[in-house]
Amino acid sequence: MSMSFAVPLATPAPSNRASPETIRALEERAFNAWPARQSVLQAGWVFRLSGGFTKRANSVNAIEAGAPFSGVRAAAEALYARHGLPPVFRISPLAPAAADQELADAGYTYFDPSLVMATAGLDAAQAHACVQIETTPTAAWLDGFAAANGVQAQNHAVHHAMVHAIALPCAFATLHDGAGRTIGFGLAVLERGVIGLYDIVVDPALRGRGHGSSLVRALLQWGRDVGAGSAYLQVRAVNGVAQRLYAGLGFVEVYGYHYRIPPVKA
What we know:
The chain is an alpha+beta fold.
């Protein structure tokens, strides 16, 4: 994704020490890498809407450290109701503690804790010969990527439109086995000298054989080739296997986030 200034992130720090500047830089990149169809800004928060497809593109997020939460919940509930969507809040360290507490008191459920991991640099990595990288998504890649990530057929059009909406340079990776069959996909997005890795997925029947590492190494090599100096990704806290894979490739935890989803109405 190469209007890049090739400025790598600062050395990642554990989540309890990451600076607001580091967190905001990663949050901005993530929003740009997976754009919402519509966004509404309010007092240091952004309400993202994409027809209900994926949480991250349909959630309320703080974009300024300690942004006041007064009135934000009510405004979000009204806006999302207008669009027929549940108000989902994504709570990163930029959000004040009062926001998470107010949502908890209102019955919003803690959901899907995740980690943001990053590297301090990109070491030279030998790309796997069976990983094909393209800079524009083909129809086959879009359909395969969506299916591999469990996107239902009726949501493919929205999913494909969101991928096409990414304004930054991208790498669309496809992993083949020795017989030429497609067994995995991945996406990388370049912004300001940093690449973000998204939805690295391998055929479930073939996991644990180093295929995920091959995809990541190929995308990191692409990042080096286009001038990136570091990388980041997001991974669910329960996915210990993926975390160990990424740690082995030089990623460390920078901070965590979680969602708050509204209570089920009787």
